[in-house]
């Protein structure tokens, strides 16, 4: 992703620099445009043969409130 572009997700988050990647996507620093809070944003290719982000999000919601579990 180019540093000169102002990329946004859902009109609520601005995507910053890439901070990691894994087998199911790339992770970027993001900023909540309403609160200024720094967040992590994981993006998965729309060409993915086996999409995982929806399942990952559901699992995080089930585990919500546990020690070390991120807010989704």
Automatic annotation (TrEMBL):
Gene Ontology molecular functions: ATP binding; protein kinase activity
Segments passing through the bilayer: none
Residue sites binding ATP per the record: 42
Source species, domain of life: Eukaryota
InterPro entries: Kinase-like_dom_sf (IPR011009), Prot_kinase_dom (IPR000719), Protein_kinase_ATP_BS (IPR017441)
Entry keywords, A to Z: ATP-binding, Kinase, Nucleotide-binding, Transferase
Kinase listed as a keyword: yes
Residues annotated as domain Protein kinase: 13-72
Coiled coil as UniProt keyword: no
Designated name of the protein: Casein kinase I isoform delta
